[in-house]
Design brief:
Distance between the termini: 53 Å
Radius of gyration: 19 Å
Largest sheet: none
Number of strands: 0
Structural class: mainly alpha
Number of helices: 9
Order of helices and strands: HHHHHHHHH
Length: 205
Amino acid sequence: MIEAAERLFAEYGVEAVSLRMVGAAAGQRNNSVAQYHFGSKEGLIAAIIAARSPTVDARRQELADELRRADRPLLPEDLIRLLVVPLAETIGASGTGTCYLRFLANVMDHPTFVRDAESTGTDQPALRWMRRELRALLPGQSAATFRRRSQWAALIAFRILAEQERQLAAGDDGAEPTEQVVGELVATLVALMTAPVGNGTLPPR
């Protein structure tokens, strides 16, 4: 049922999918089977995240450990890649390996699951380390600015990678290689995190 639910949520969004639809898509004759196992739509979504996130978390931890062992100063690009690369690696060459990124992008639109983007997915050790090290590289930013930009960076990363997954799954001939998307996305997020702080005013019309 996890795979069926992930696909339905990815394709149709959270609001449009009922637990009965999930049971039917999973080939279950009992219309209440998803309700029985997960209790609610929110419980089912949490179960999907719990099933998928350990692989992403483990890969992120592996990359973080490699950075810790590197005998050189850390750069913002190194740390931003910790956010992006483990997510991008869930996308198969054809985009058909998983619907996880599209699922996450749709979950982020659901009012029940609107949350601080810094804790999206899980608040696992490698992410905490990434934020701490990146914060140290940006001493001139206020805590509020860093928090706001971190939220924006997470939202952008999920959206862009979900679109890459969608294009590949649809066989879109115009889809760029995932490696190129990752490179440009990392560069964009580095620019976002390190840009000078604006004065908070709009130009005159």
